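Troubleshooting: if your tokenizer reports a length mismatch, compare against these two reference records.
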Amino acid sequence: MGHSAHTNEHTAATLACARRVLELEADSLKLMSAGLDQAFVDAVGILLNAKGRIIVSGMGKSGHIARKIAATLASTGTPAQFVHPAEASHGDLGMVTRDDVALMLSNSGETPELMSLIDYVKRNSIPMIAIASKPQSTLMRAADVPLILPNAPEACPMGLAPTTSTTATLALGDALAVALMERRDFKPEHYKMLHPGGTLGAKLQKISEVMRGPDALPLIKPDAPVMDVLLTIGKYALGVAGVVEDDRLIGVISDGDISRNITGLQDRCAKDIMTRTPKVISGEARLQEAVDLMNRHKITMLFVTGASGTPETRPVGAIHIHDCLRAGVS
């Protein structure tokens, strides 16, 4: 058999393996979704009413998932902290208070390192939610609310490496976090407060925080001659001029409008060549919305309208695609 045939066999086998893993894990999530019951609702209620933080703990691969769940909770409005179960018995139990809620992860429910933390939580009457696959395990029997993972095989061919179980645990953690977001009515402005940096923070900025103000607007009257239009476009370097009447934006003129009306241009005025349905956006909108609108209509600038206490069509600012790019949104 030639090299090419071997390569094709390996390709087919590798893709078949990947698909088998993904299908097994997807089936597990469907099983878990179908099996959700009042216990999940009770868990959300306990987490929602916590006066302190959600203490998330797990060992090994469950520990990695626990860190991710804690981070997701914290970033979506539910204060949370990961506590390593082995370190807990060496002083980190002091991080856990009676105002907290414990969220314990263990596929088997018999992880030895969790036992001192379980004992501490029970002795101090701290509510405990547990996620495991064995209902009769030590962890699940100790829990106030046990959330049972589906009875599904691991994707590992030996059935040993945590794969399906960790995916299910992570997804269940996401479901808890999103349910809490909805119960808290967690809005984009709340999300932005917790994500001020990076691309997420940039996308969530309001246009009013970035836009060019009223003094930087290329505005002209409807009867302005085309020469004034050209001078205005050149002066403000935004590629457009806005046509205003009684402080209302009634049209825009772009370089394209001028090119399309080049014949007899010197005898025309602004209202003769303007586009009468200008695309505008509110200063309360997010930068990402401005970029999406500009991309959708293949334009590079928007007038900002609708500031508090002003008519809907009164221009109060302008946002150029370059402003968005400088802010980190593309």
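Reference record two:
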Amino acid sequence: MSLTNFRHDPLSLALDPNDAQSIGVWRDEMDRAFPPLDIVPLGTSHFHAQYRSAGSADLQLSDIKASPHSVHRSPGIITGQSFEFYKLSYQVSGSGTMTQGDRELELTPGTITVYDTARQYDLHFDEDFRFIVAMFPKSALDLPAGLAGEFAAYPLDGTTGTGAVLSTYLMGLVDSLDHLAKPSGERLARTGLDLITSVLSNELDDRLDRNDLGRSLLIEVTYYINEHLQDWKLSPESIAAAHFISTRHLYNVFKSAGVSVAQWIKQRRLTEARRDLADPVLAHASVGQIAHKWCFDDAGYFSRVFREVFDISPSEWRTRAQFSNVHSLRA
């Protein structure tokens, strides 16, 4: 799975528990929906599952109900940028465990957790369960991977605060899942991704060691960059000046996030341009106009770096998004 082949058409699948082939059908479908997984049913020969899914350009949302089984994401099938995604799950009913790295957590109703598809992880469910899975490219988050990655296999509360807002939104979207594949889906997905970023950012603030000034500054600067992406004067120098620090200090702060300041600014602008190109509300704007909106004054350079990041040209990406929108309107 790559950034360019999220499923846009809603899909609904219900397996017959009396059909011995059901588990094979389930494995095949999960491999199409997510990066490849090893799936093993637990304690029953009558495997049953229900699956509903739809996707926008940046967000695939799945509603999964199934009998007990385990899921293993093997390191042997984790290669390349094709799997640069995060998955966020919200446990609706039933319980299980999730393990990634040295963290293991209980998945009980109301639990939200994030996992990195580029790393090994395991899910284990001993009882019937239902959970909602939101999968999105890492670049779709407004947080550097060095910050967002801290939440792998870390429990978040989906019953209070911003976590409750996010879980309510996800459940509402699941109830009208086909809207994700319609022209309005890009806006719905953007709202969802903004909520996910807010939940993670708030959690970072709550968890932050107040003596960790570098981490605190990184979060503050990230907010500042997101608010000034359309400012042509935005630069490491202007950011450092706005925060009364040296550019050297700024570079060192971003080093811990695994990306340079300039790279992060470019990545955020490309992500916003990608969203705009897929947005039917902006279909009247040319590729060049959208590039200029996000501070790319050279169309050739914009096209080149867009392809480098997303493996598709801006025009091809827009055409694909428009085709999906027209198809969904006819469905």
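Descriptive notes for reference record two:
- The radius of gyration is 20 Å.
- Residues 170 and 192 are 8 Å apart (CA to CA).
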